[in-house]
Amino acid sequence: MNQRVLVVEDEAAIAQGLCDCLEFNQYEVEWQADGKSGLAAALHGQFDLLLLDVMLPHVNGFDICKQVREQKPEQAIVMLTAKGSEADILEGFNRGADDYITKPFSVAQLLARMQALIRRAKESNDAEVISVSEDFTIGAIQVHVESLQIVHADKTQDINRRDLELLQLLSEEPGRIISRRRILRDVFGYADPDNVETRSVDMHIVKLRKKLAKIIDGGGIETVRGEGYRWVA
């Protein structure tokens, strides 16, 4: 069965181009031209991936993303918009987007990123695929796998599955630099990370740092410019 994609885009020319491209690449596509109908389709239909424009009539893409994420935690969601500012990108990730593509975009990039997200969502829904099975510690933080929580002293913070896998990767080699390429491959599921242009790692780490800051006063994930990230005490 072909993978199903919902495109929510109010500009007909862009939507038609997207639908034609996806159908040519063997996806089954449904198009909705406004936020209200797009939200209804996303909540009640079954899709492998959602492509959401931000600026939509009635309900914007950020609000669609937030509501879908609350009801369908493992749904793969890509925000698609002409906006490219840091604040807009971060807002998309804060609402639960998995990735963010700015128009104009490369079709090859779009397809590569879509396929990685669909594959990862499928693995998350597969009960036999458990990448992290036991609780572990990173620095002074306890990471609880089943409850998806991090604990330090008497403070507890919820995390998501990707946070868990990123922390687990950093915990394997504390103090050593983990390359962005490795994170894209091992945590985000990109088979060919060298040929993918995405800020997903950067934005996800910004979000994870905010969660960590709620339970620890210092340390955490350090950026090593041009190299990657590492855990510091």
The CATH architecture of the largest domain would be: 3-Layer(aba) Sandwich
Strand order of the largest sheet: 2-1-3-4-5
Q: What is the name of the CATH topology of the largest domain?
A: Rossmann fold
Tally of DSSP helical segments: 8
**What is the radius of gyration?**
18 Å
Strand-residue proportion: 15-25%
Annotated CATH homologous superfamily of the largest domain: Response regulator
In short:
The chain is an alpha/beta fold and 233 residues long. It is built from eight helices and twelve strands. It has two domains: 4-125, Response regulator (Rossmann fold, 3-Layer(aba) Sandwich), CATH 3.40.50; 136-232, Winged helix-like DNA-binding domain superfamily/Winged helix DNA-binding domain (Arc Repressor Mutant, subunit A).
